[in-house]
Design brief:
Mean pLDDT: 75
Oligomer: single chain
Number of strands: 0
Radius of gyration: 28 Å
Shape: rod-shaped
Number of helices: 5
Distance between the termini: 85 Å
Strand content: under 5%
Low-confidence stretches: 16-24
Length: 118
């Protein structure tokens, strides 16, 4: 049984180990203008500073512009996702806290009403 498994694995992996002509040719890096990449780097740094200062909307706006101009660059997409996620977390925490404070206010109102009846 183990011998059949080894033969099967050898046959299954054989196409992966053979080299083809397309696999031997190196891929060429895309040509980017350094000036445009400098502006992207500056925008990413600015967005990271805004995220650090909890100004998620500012970081989101910056990264939306960069991803529209240069959609093939990955880092601005990551920063955009981070800013949007943290902004949603901040909003949900605020809503949760508002909901809790409303519940506390309702309980206090009921207690006052009960105490007034006594």
């Amino acid at each position: 049984m183990p011998r059949k498994l080894l033969v099967f694995l050898a046959l299954a992996l054989a196409p992966l180990t053979t080299s083809s002509a397309s696999a031997q040719q190196p891929t060429q890096a895309p040509d980017h203008e350094p000036e445009k990449l400098d502006s992207v780097n500056a925008a990413v740094v600015t967005a990271r500073i805004a995220t650090k200062d909890k100004r998620y909307a500012d970081a989101e706006i910056l990264m939306l512009k960069v991803t529209a101009d240069k959609p093939q660059i990955v880092i601005p997409w990551v920063e955009l996702g981070l800013a949007q996620t943290l902004c949603l977390v901040k909003r949900s925490m605020r809503l949760m806290l508002c909901g809790l404070s409303r519940q506390v206010e309702k309980r206090q109102k009921k207690r006052r009403a009960c105490q007034a009846q006594k």
